[in-house]
Specification:
73% of the residues lie in helices and 0% in strands. The protein has six helices and no strands.
């Protein structure tokens, strides 16, 4: 098992790639692709997506979420600490599924893609 920090780090990249792959399907122009991607790869949106899937998590996944939310991370210019913590929990889950259970990741991607 990887650390929560590693799960969140990988999850950040996996989520952005997933969003980009979904956006490419829309056949938007480059500048609109970037705009649409940044709308979905930010703390507020990821926090919202965590709310969408939260009631579908197993006990083990809830523990990953909790540990991700409690991870000590620099906040810098971020305005809303709670959004950032929830987004980190979301990224940790994505990374966890990517590393430990790709079938579960695909299951949640199907749920989440309708919000993109």
């Amino acid at each position: 098992m990887s650390s929560i920090r590693e799960y969140a780090y990988i999850g950040d990249a996996v989520w952005e790639l997933f969003v980009r792959e979904e956006n490419i399907k829309s056949e938007l122009k480059s500048e609109m692709l970037h705009k649409k991607t940044t709308e979905h790869v930010n703390a507020k949106f990821q926090h919202d997506m965590l709310r969408v899937i939260e009631d579908k998590l197993t006990a083990e996944e809830q523990e990953i979420e909790r540990r991700g939310r409690n991870l000590s991370v620099p906040t810098g210019r971020r305005k809303i600490q709670s959004d950032y913590r929830q987004a980190t929990a979301f990224e940790a889950l994505i990374g966890y599924w990517y590393i430990e259970n790709k079938n579960r990741l695909e299951e949640f991607k199907e749920i989440l893609k309708k919000y993109l």
